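User: tokens in, sequence out, please.
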């Protein structure tokens, strides 16, 4: 709202309340009222307003995305996730709904970082110009997608050095297996993470590998 944008939150709230009185059957009036309450940190009242909007417009992805944000502000993590998933199910192409779901999942890290990465990647595929989404993709996927290849490279660089040490110091040849084990483990973990994320390869036009996108975005 314009009034709220000018920092006049109280005036904006009064205008939103008046709009609800004039059009009590319009769900957008309640979402607007909910946003005003949220800006004033009156989250319980915001939830009541958004719940009414959901009652009037039960198929509205934007309503459930807003409700998820309110639930998150109330520190109701499980409910926020449930509402965000509902928003995405109602409109799988809604960048806003995906953004909210990604936020809720990412803040439950590390347990749900993998899914958060997949959600953010999906949202970025829908809006590749969004810089915030790109940063979110980096934040949730960088460690899992960039560090394992670096570990693999380091392991194979160390392999000949370990071989020389084994020969020079007459150490057991079995030590040669250590860099190989580390490299294989890092490679497998990368593949598993990519498969769990599910959208790594197809999330971007032309099948461009996400590793390189993350690498160049990081520079």
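Assistant: Sequence out:
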């Amino acid at each position: 709202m314009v009034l709220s944008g000018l920092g006049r939150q109280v005036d904006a709230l009064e205008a939103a309340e008046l709009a609800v009185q004039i059009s009590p059957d319009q769900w957008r009036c309640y979402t607007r009222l909910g946003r005003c309450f949220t800006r004033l940190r009156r989250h319980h009242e915001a939830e009541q307003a958004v719940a009414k909007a959901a009652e009037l417009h039960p198929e509205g992805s934007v309503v459930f995305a807003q409700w998820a944000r309110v639930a998150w502000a109330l520190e109701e993590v499980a409910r926020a996730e449930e509402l965000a998933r509902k928003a995405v199910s109602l409109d799988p192409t809604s960048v806003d709904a995906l953004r909210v779901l990604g936020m809720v999942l990412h803040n439950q890290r590390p347990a749900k970082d993998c899914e958060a990465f997949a959600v953010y990647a999906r949202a970025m595929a829908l809006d590749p110009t969004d810089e915030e989404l790109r940063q979110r993709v980096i934040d949730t996927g960088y460690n899992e997608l960039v560090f394992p290849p670096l570990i693999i490279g380091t392991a194979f660089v160390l392999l000949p050095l370990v071989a020389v040490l084994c020969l020079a110091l007459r150490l057991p040849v079995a030590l040669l297996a250590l860099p190989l084990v580390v490299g294989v483990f890092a490679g497998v973990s990368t593949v598993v993470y990519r498969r769990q994320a599910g959208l790594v390869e197809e999330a971007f036009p032309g099948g461009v590998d996400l590793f390189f996108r993350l690498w160049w975005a990081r520079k």
